[in-house]
Design a protein that fits this description.
Number of domains: 1
Number of strands: 2
Family: Belongs to the class-I pyridine nucleotide-disulfide oxidoreductase family.
InterPro entries: Class-I_Pyr_Nuc-Dis_Oxidored, FAD/NAD-bd_sf, FAD/NAD-binding_dom, Pyr_OxRdtase_I_AS
Order of helices and strands: EHEHH
Keywords: Disulfide bond, FAD, Flavoprotein, NAD, Oxidoreductase, Redox-active center
Protein name: FAD/NAD(P)-binding domain-containing protein
Radius of gyration: 21 Å
GO molecular function, one term: dihydrolipoyl dehydrogenase (NADH) activity
Helix content: 40-55%
Number of helices: 3
Largest sheet: 2 strands, parallel
Structural class: mainly alpha
Shape: rod-shaped
Strand content: 5-15%
C-alpha cells in the first residue's frame, strides 16, 4: 500500500475495463481508488450499446403490435 495515498491501486476510468479491473482488485483484497469523470459504466452502458439495444427492442415490440387491437381485461 502506498504511504501517500492509502491505496494499493488507482484505476483511472470506470468504463467496462476499468470497472472490471477495480472490482477484481478489490476481490483480491487490494485497496482500490476508482476515478471517473462521468458515470460509472462508461459510454456503452449509458449512451451507446445498452440504451440503443433497449430502444431498438421497444421499436420491435411497437412494430409487432402495430395495427393490432388493444383489449382491456378490466
Amino acid at each position: 500500500m502506498s504511504e501517500r495515498t492509502g491505496f494499493d491501486i488507482v484505476v483511472v476510468g470506470a468504463g467496462s475495463g476499468g470497472y472490471a479491473t477495480a472490482l477484481r482488485a478489490a476481490q483480491l483484497g487490494l485497496r482500490v481508488a476508482l476515478i471517473e469523470k462521468d458515470k460509472v459504466g462508461g459510454t456503452c452502458l449509458h449512451y451507446g450499446c445498452v440504451p440503443t439495444k433497449a430502444l431498438l427492442h421497444a421499436v420491435e415490440v411497437a412494430d409487432a403490435l402495430a395495427g393490432k387491437p388493444l383489449h382491456s381485461h378490466a
